[in-house]
């Protein structure tokens, strides 16, 4: 959840093993581990937190996202994340059109 907007949902395994939203990826990259030092964390979070009284249109995270493109300012629905070769729909969903395979 980012600024009260659900950005990704699914089983813990699906979200932790294959995060589809850039904010989820940033959160997981910030978790310290014995393998990686904090200096190895990708500092892709830029910009300032938007004013919660005047939230940006579309994806609330887009103004801080290193992957934002034209179209991110449009309303985004939770979309099912489909893995290549998957036979059935997954309960894994993300509010990002960039990381949803066709």
Low-confidence stretches: none
Percent of sequence in beta strands: 5-15%
Please provide the count of β strands. 3
User: Largest beta sheet, briefly?
Assistant: 3 strands, antiparallel
Output the number of helix runs. 2
String of helices and strands: EHHEE
The radius of gyration over CA amounts to 14 Å
The shape is globular
- The overall pLDDT average reads 82
Helix proportion:
10-25%
Q: How are the strands of the largest sheet arranged?
A: 1-3-2
Assign the structural class, choosing from mainly alpha, mainly beta, alpha/beta, alpha+beta, or little secondary structure: little secondary structure
Distance between the termini: 24 Å
Which properties best describe this structure?
single chain, 102 residues, little secondary structure, 3-stranded antiparallel sheet, 3 strands, 14% helix, 6% strand, globular
